[in-house]
Specification:
BirA Bifunctional Protein, domain 2; binds histidyl-adenosine monophosphate; Rossmann fold; 16 helices; 16 strands; 2 domains; alpha+beta; about 40% helix
């Protein structure tokens, strides 16, 4: 045998047994998102690398360390998309969608980040995301968060909402200056990672999970107390919108996001079922992004949820994936029966009834075994005798009960 070739590290296969759960996740997303007026967009997996440098931010870990970048045969510098927002915004601008007024779009598909693989963190992972363009008012923030809350409820998933505001261009710079100064004053008590991030990306320092950093971070100045009046009013309105919708949340003043485009609203849904990579979804407002990427000033807000992580939660909750099983399994006794089985199976399938047969034929006992293995509800034995009389027996594989059935009425009877 030739040497076998394994898949790429951190990139997973999704086998048929697991796929049903993903299909459910996606079907429920389509259903819920449509109720809120979100329409699907599909953009390429590959984009100009520049899009993410400018969109997500040159200083972020995602762009600096984790992006798969390659030269397209000595021409353009391309990247596998590390997230969905930048590409969606690019398409929104490129196709002039902004002339039609506010738009709500959603997407689903693979994203790529060259992170250190671990539980809940992969190099190819999948997101389902929503982006709402053109509305600056805070009620859309609340509506979108409620959508995600509804979505989780429909799937029977319990996730905790953490809400924060990251301010905007008028209040954040002064805060960052204070934060830097504070962090620098307690440099010696912070871990090497924090020390490295302090200058470049001080907000990220607040997100540090290292035990010894916690006392310092707990005393750090808080943006929430230094918001400009506009950002404060926006945050209050988002909160009252969520209250009105009955969505429960906690304000987490240390919640920061790993992408640079956010202003004001930032949020995450987390679950205890996930361990250290606890965020199942994250998002926020990005009012400057469309303009940064060459479009007209257009506010926006969005989120993405991680499908691998959601699948882990569903699995842990013991939610069985609803896989479609055959209703009838044809067991053939001889060559005539096998031919009839093929014909009858085609007939049932045309009528929308799932059925199976074992094309290898062989011993009937083995065929019955196969019927049980695939989880069929009934078995139907066909041989020369059944073909000649047009009569057969439908055997309930759970109760072992047999019911006579005329082959001509098979579709109606099985239904
Ligand atoms: P993000 O927080 O980077 O946001 O990713 C969103 C979700 O994707 C995370 O909460 C997590 O569930 C999942 N995820 C991220 N990285 C990985 C990974 N390496 N392995 C497995 N799952 C992962 C964004 O990507 C933004 N584009 C969200 C957004 C949309 N903001 C506005 N619009």
């Amino acid at each position: 045998m030739a040497t076998k070739i394994n898949g790429v590290k951190g990139m997973n296969d999704l086998l048929p047994g697991q796929a049903a759960r993903w299909q459910e996740m996606e079907a429920v997303a389509r259903e819920v998102f449509a109720l809120y007026g979100y329409r699907e967009v599909r953009t390429p997996v590959v984009e100009p690398a520049q899009l993410f440098a400018r969109g997500v931010g040159e200083a972020t870990d995602i762009v600096k360390k984790e992006m798969y970048v390659f030269e397209d045969k000595g021409e353009d510098l391309l990247a596998l998309r590390p997230e969905g927002t930048a590409g969606t915004v690019r398409a929104f601008i490129e196709h002039g969608a902004f002339v039609e007024g506010p738009q709500k779009w959603f997407y689903m598909g693979p994203m790529f980040r060259r992170e250190r693989p671990q539980k809940g963190r992969y190099r190819q992972f999948h997101q389902i995301g929503c982006e709402a363009f053109g509305v600056a008012e805070p009620f859309i923030d609340a509506e979108q968060i409620a959508l995600l809350d509804d979505y989780f409820a429909r799937l029977g998933v319990r996730a905790e909402l953490k809400l924060n505001t990251v301010g905007d261009g008028s209040c954040r710079p002064a805060y960052l200056q204070d934060l830097r100064a504070y962090l620098a004053s307690r440099k010696g008590e912070l871990c090497p990672d924090c020390n490295e991030r302090m200058e470049r990306n001080p907000l990220r320092v607040l997100d540090c999970k290292v035990e010894s950093c916690q006392p310092v971070l707990a005393e750090a100045p808080r943006l929430l107390e230094r918001l400009c009046p506009e950002c404060a009013a926006h945050f209050d309105a988002v909160r009252s919108g969520l209250d009105a919708l009955g969505v429960r949340y906690t304000v987490d003043t240390r919640l920061v996001r790993g992408l640079d485009y956010y202003v004001r609203t930032a949020y995450e849904f987390t679950s205890d079922a996930l361990g250290s990579q606890s965020a199942v979804a994250g998002g926020g407002r990005y009012d400057g992004l469309v303009e940064t990427l060459g479009g007209p000033p257009t506010p926006g807000i969005g989120f993405a949820l991680g499908q691998e992580r959601l699948a882990m939660i569903l699995e842990k909750a013991g939610r069985a994936a609803p896989e479609r099983k055959p209703v009838v399994f044809f067991v053939s006794a001889d060559a005539d029966g096998a031919r009839e089985a093929l014909r009858r199976a085609a007939e049932l399938r045309r009528a929308g009834i799932a059925c199976e047969l074992d094309p290898r034929g062989g011993k009937m006992k083995a065929q019955f075994k196969q019927a049980e293995r695939v989880g069929a509800r009934y078995a139907l034995v066909l041989g020369g005798n059944e073909v000649a009389t047009g009569q057969a027996k439908l055997k309930d594989l759970a109760t072992r009960e047999e019911t006579p059935v005329a082959l001509a009425e098979l579709v109606a009877r099985v239904r």
